[in-house]
Amino acid sequence: MTAKEKLEVIVRALDMKRGENIQVLEISDLTILADYFVIVNGTSNTHVKTLADEAEFKLSEKGVEPLRTEGYQSASWIILDYGDIVVHVFMKDARSLYQLENLWADGTAVDITSYLTKE
Fold first, then answer.
1. What is the pTM of this model?
2. Packing angle between helix 3-16 and helix 45-61, nearest 10 degrees?
3. Residue 113 within any structural domain of the chain
4. What is the H or E stretch that residue 93 is in?
5. Burial of 51 (0-12, 13-18, 19+ CB in 10 A)
6. Residue 7, CB half-sphere, CA atoms under 13 Å: how many?
7. Does any domain span residue 88?
8. Does residue 54 carry a pLDDT above 70?
9. Could you tell me if residue 119 is inside a domain?
10. How far apart are CA 52 and CA 44, in angstroms?
11. What CATH number is attached to the domain comprising 65?
12. Which residues contact 70 (CB under 8 A, 6 or more apart)?
């Protein structure tokens, strides 16, 4: 699967489970950590776990497994590392505290509107 195909699966999964404020940043020109960061927040610890589980499940159905996962114990910030894509699932207050969008502001915002459900 290409990175763009994985991004679509991830964003659709997060949107389907009502993830809030989904953002995708292309960071390939800034770091070797990944090509993309997906950032989303949930409304509770349970919601954060559900979002991470759904993204992981939908990619697993396509034969793609994360290299690493972190944060399931506290569920205030769960990270799914797919090598080229790192998914950050936050509680709203943790997202505000760490402000990844500001930290990686030199990254390029990716237009994901075509992946989102129209309400």
1. 0.94
2. 140
3. no
4. helix 92-98
5. buried
6. 23
7. yes
8. yes
9. no
10. 12
11. 3.30.460.10
12. 78, 79, 81
**Coil, strand or helix at 34:** coil
Q: Give the contacts of 47 (CB within 8 A, at least 6 positions apart).
A: 17, 18
10: tokens are: 């991830």
Separation between Cα atoms, residue 86 and residue 68, nearest integer Å: 10
Average the pLDDT over 35-64 and give the result: 96
Report the distance separating Cα 79 and Cα 74, nearest Å. Answer: 12
Residue 118 has pLDDT above 80, yes or no: no
Structure tokens given for 60: 């697993």
Residue 111: inside a domain, yes or no? no
| Nearest by Cα to 69 from 57, 79, 56, 84 | 79
Kindly state the tokens that stand for 16: 């389907």
- Please identify which residue in the block is written with the tokens 């390939």: 28
User: How is residue 119 annotated by DSSP?
Assistant: -
User: How many structural domains does the chain have?
Assistant: 1
Q: Is the pLDDT of residue 74 over 90?
A: no
Are the C-beta atoms of residues 91 and 77 closer than 8 Å to each other? Answer: yes
Q: 101 lies in which domain range? A: 3-105
